[in-house]
Known about the structure:
The chain is of the alpha/beta class. The protein has helices spanning 24-36, 54-62, 80-97, 106-115, 118-124, 127-134, 136-148, 153-162, 179-190, 203-206, 222-232, 260-266, 290-301, 306-309, 346-357, 368-376, 397-404, 414-425, 432-443, 452-469; strands at 12-18, 39-45, 68-72, 166-170, 193-197, 216-219, 239-241, 275-279, 312-316, 333-335, 362-364, 381-384, 409-411.
Amino acid sequence: MKSEDKKKTPSQKILFLMRSAEFFHYQRTTIEALLARGFRVHLLVDRRWSAVDALEKLGVFAKGYRHFTCGWAESRNDYYRNVLFYTRELLTYRHYISPHRNSQSVYYENRWYGYLPPFLQKILAYAVSRALLKMTLAGALLAGVERVAPAAENISADIKRFAPDAVMATPGNMRFSSADVEYLKAAKKLGVLTMIPVLSWDNLTTKGLMHIHPDFLLCWNDMQAGEAVEHQGFVLTQLRITGAPVFDDWFTKLRPSGTREEFCRAHDLRAEDPVVVYLGSSRHMAADETWLIGSLRAALDNSPDARMRRMQIIVRPHPANWRIYEKVSLPGVVVLPREGTLPDGPATLQLFYDTLHHAVAAIDGANTSAIIDSIIAGCPGIAIITDEYKHTQIETKHFNQLVAADALYCARGAEEVWDVLGRLLNGADEKKEKRKAFVERFIRPCGLEISAGEAAAREVEKIILGQSSA
């Protein structure tokens, strides 16, 4: 049994909603910290967006905690389901085509257009339709539907059965409304305290609008708090800063699992020659990056520096986009792991850490989330700037936060890649302190020694106690 408060019956209860069980690792440390503080946590996940064996996997976690339970969330199936689907999708698209999208890449506008039902796409293909949608009156009418639409009766009844002190839900703003949004709506109607812990670092800017504003939003850092005000319409009194729980495991005093020789021997690499890691992206960010890996290999092979020519490339696929690498067969290129994994368990985290530990640098084309992993692990990150991925890279606000923090090396073309790698091989890493400062501000603003999950649990406890004493 893991460390929990010793009270037999927790006095405070959290109903935690997740759109998908795949998001559990984003909030695991927060849930662990809540349980350690004596909360009872009941987690519900949306069956439509989760794997069929999701509850079985969550049950493994539940075995370690007396006061953690999980199950399937109720689904909204009444008349208002489709009505709210259309109005919410239109409101988000309206946000992306409005002037206040603040120079965010047009990619996200086009992506959301592709999410709309075909009949709405046909209507909005006309400039006059988009102009009407931008009007203040159109926004007010669409938002008015949300205000007058009742909560789903079955979901309200589910909340009443558990009688929570607070409902936490995440992410609260992704396409095709899911249980997290509907439980927030019902909880608000019932007068239950509501909170959203922000799911990911670009969630507030590149995903949808939060149509149901919780009482409190748990942000990673001050930059995200600014995005919550600018893009989602929150006020500062609703915001709390906690850090990024999804990265907590990187701060658990990881060590290499073996020697460099053992690592290289296990993965068909030469221990005497340097290694660089290429971080693959999802299909949405970059459908097929094999051309870029081929270009990188050719650039290294044509370098005047013998160390570059001997440089080996480990390609780390995104777990949702690994099949494209089945056709990669280049000398000095190893795909590891073949089918891709998230660093969401001890073994997968250890493999990722070992890979970064033995690498000169981590290179990416569009996967900037994995670059944060490498930065925390102490591995320099290099972004290859290309026109092909500019809409999901250099034109996005979250990528430019890394650039503004000077925590990332940027390379345009083979010569710049050689230059950065050469300096790193020579022991010149001028961005090392900048990366540390980025981690302190962006990932753990409450202090490097305090896990973001613990910081979030503290805020949740303070909010609930404050509400109960008000």
